Amino acid sequence: MIKKEIEQVKARHLRKKGNSIKEIGKILHVANSSVSNWVRDVKLTKKQIKFLKHKSHLKEVIKKRVETRLRNENARRRTIIENHKKTISKLTINKEHLLLMGTCLYWAEGGKSERNRIFRFSNSDPSMIKVIMPFIKNVCEIPRHKLHGHIHLHPHLDTVKAEKYWSKVSGIPTSQFYKTSQSHNKRSSNTRDTLPFGTFNVEICSTDLFLKMKAWTEVIIEKTTQPTS
Question: What is the pTM of this model?
Answer without folding.
Answer: 0.67
